[in-house]
Amino acid sequence: MNVEEEVQRLTEEIKRLGAVQTDGSYKVTFGTLFNDDQCANIFEALVGTLRAAKKRKVVTYDGELLLQGVHDNVQITLNPAPAN
Question: CA quadruple 50, 51, 56, 58: dihedral positive or negative?
Fold first, then answer.
């Protein structure tokens, strides 16, 4: 799976596990993503996929590196899709 495919899968998983917001974005905590069995089976390196998605402005979250346990309560926001 290439990076673009992984970022696309990540958006699908955030929509599945997260809560939709009034602006069309989705929010989920890092711990929810990290501890989900389906995500564990999809992503070899969840943190790396999150960093790639953040670099592409697909998601936003505080900090650079998220660590399991320490950052479980960090909110990850899937930005709303741009209008065409």
Answer: positive
Q: Which residues are 5's β-sheet partners?
A: none
Q: Give the length of the chain.
A: 84
Average per-residue pLDDT for the chain: 93
Indicate the angle between helix axes 46-55 and 3-17, nearest 10 degrees: 100
Quote the pTM value: 0.91
Residues 6 or more apart in contact with residue 74 via CB below 8 angstroms: 29, 30, 61, 62, 63, 66
Domains of the chain: 3-78 (1.10.10.1540)
- C-alpha gyration radius of the chain: 12
